[in-house]
Amino acid sequence: MGRFPSFGRFLFFWERRNHFQNRENKPLIPKGDVNNAGGTSAVLYLATHDSSGSQTSSTLSSHEESTRASSRNVFTSRAFSPSSWSDYILKYLLITSTLLFTVLGLVTLVVGLWGLINKESFAQEKISGIGTDPMLLFMFLGLILALLSLMGCVGALRENMCLRTFSAIILVLLEVQVLAVAVLYSLQGQIENYLRSGMLAAMVRYQDDLDLRFIIDEIQTGLQCCGADTYRDWGINVYFNCSAPGVQACGVPPSCCIDPLENGTVWNSQCGVGAQQLDEFSAQSVIFLGGCLGSISRWINQHSGVIVMVVIILLGVQILTLFITDRLLQKIRWSRAQHAINSLGIS
């Protein structure tokens, strides 16, 4: 052997090659237990096969892929674990809020229905004008709010796919509100003209529609105003026109009066009689001279910050509802996927 060193190295190399081939044919770690073995020992064992070529590389890559997949499964299970305390908090927060809005919707529905019944709007002689009754709007909004909120409450409580429909409707309503805000902002120069036209039309029907009368009286009393632009605007009403034959001719409603209560207790319906015939200096001690459109504009300017805050809060509540609903939908999908995997594993 001393005379043939190269031959000895060749035999030694041949024996090492046979030894590694035998180890590959009979690995220390069985194939079925590769995934269960420790990551460090498996990597060390595979690293000793310098001469195994492509088989060792493919084994290492498959081991790395399985390790990464198991890591992803662990992180996924942790992120969407059904036992996460945050999911329970979001779930019961959504249930509570939708339950409250359901009650609010039912109350609004009952108020609208009570208003229609109290005014006998379902009577045969009044049924033709029920389409323009404001109480009908209360009923419609209350019904929509109650049904939508009840859908979200049941979907969150039962953890079913009703939440998907609830989320889609909320998203549509949110888009409509954002579009309405944008349109109102772009048409703010024309809003005053629309308000003037609407108020003049309401003044024409003041004596014929109890709802319009109540709204106009509340506006004039609350904002201390009379008419649209001036108190003389009441001349467009057939009862307050100076050519009218009744007692109210050339007068204004009692809600225009500075002191509409006689002796502080009784409503004086005749306090505005003949006010249109007075000049402004004489009329200012009896009625409000300024129109309601100017008072409305001043009120909006004074409370613009509060209005913006209310709009932001309403939009924020809806966006938060969408976030909670999306989170619960992810949890439902994860739970169904886990149930399907478990079913396949058992079968």
UniProtKB/TrEMBL annotation:
Record's subcellular location: Cell membrane
Bilayer topology: Multi-pass membrane protein
Segments passing through the bilayer: 92-117, 137-157, 169-187, 306-325
Keyword field: Cell membrane, Disulfide bond, Glycoprotein, Membrane, Transmembrane, Transmembrane helix
InterPro entries noted in UniProt: Tetraspanin/Peripherin, Tetraspanin_EC2_sf
Cellular component terms (Gene Ontology): plasma membrane
Pfam families (UniProt xref): Tetraspanin (PF00335)
One term of GO molecular function: enzyme binding
Top-level taxon in the UniProt lineage: Eukaryota
Family: Belongs to the tetraspanin (TM4SF) family.
Oligomer and partners: Interacts with ADAM10.
Role played: Part of TspanC8 subgroup, composed of 6 members that interact with the transmembrane metalloprotease ADAM10. This interaction is required for ADAM10 exit from the endoplasmic reticulum and for enzymatic maturation and trafficking to the cell surface as well as substrate specificity. Different TspanC8/ADAM10 complexes have distinct substrates.
Protein name, entry field: Tetraspanin-10
Organism: Cyprinus carpio (Common carp)
Organism placement in taxonomy: Eukaryota, Metazoa, Chordata, Craniata, Vertebrata
